[in-house]
Specification:
The relative contact order is 0.10. The chain starts with 7 loop residues before the first helix and ends with a helix. 57% of the residues lie in helices and 7% in strands. It is built from 10 helices and 5 strands; from the N terminus they run αβααββααααββααα. The strands form 2 sheets. The protein has a 3-stranded antiparallel β-sheet with strand order 1-3-2. A two-stranded antiparallel ribbon has the order 4-5.
Length: 237
Amino acid sequence: MTSRVLTPIEARVLAVLLEKQHTVPDSYPLSLNALTLGCNQKTARDPVMSLSEAEVLAALNGLKELSLINEVSGSRVVRFDHNTARGLGVPSQSAALLCMLVLRGPQTAAELRLHTERLHRFADISSVEGFLDELAEREPRRVVKLPRAPGARESRWAHLLCGEVDVASFAAGSASSAASASGGAPAHLEAEVAELRAEFRAEQARLQAELQALRAVVERLAGELGIDTPTQADRAS
């Protein structure tokens, strides 16, 4: 079990390894280049980082000393995998929650259930809360429940892998965010929305192309049978 807190870069590296194990299993374990790209990802990251390979490699060396990652040999490129659950002494469900808290910042239990879907499927929100409570009550504590933000229905949780957090500053930040919400969404949320819009447009174009192809087939078959389709009848009128 780890004997010290992690640096923010070490925590990011460890969380990215855990995330990518589930989201891109064909590419896992990760090379240094792939790991760096995952750490610097612009979407689903809070805060967004801009790390060099040297910084990531230094973090890997620190994590290796804590037995949290392994270096995988047997290929031309050195690759790395994680040992999060055993290294931290937590079950895989808790490791998934810690991963998302590191990558996306403080979140509610409902948000965590949604964001951990590809890492672990929790039966319900109460199940998420049960694992969070266990992480908050154990020694060393791994998470803390933050004060409820003004206007919020649920409290958010933050991880303690990098040491204790300033709960008061989180509360002040939440109040400031609520007061300025009309000024626009955070940059990382805007990036996620832009990415979803691009995916929607691509899917819409694909469906339209398939629909046109199907119409062509139907009209050809109707022509061979000597009948008019609704489209052809409309054209005739």
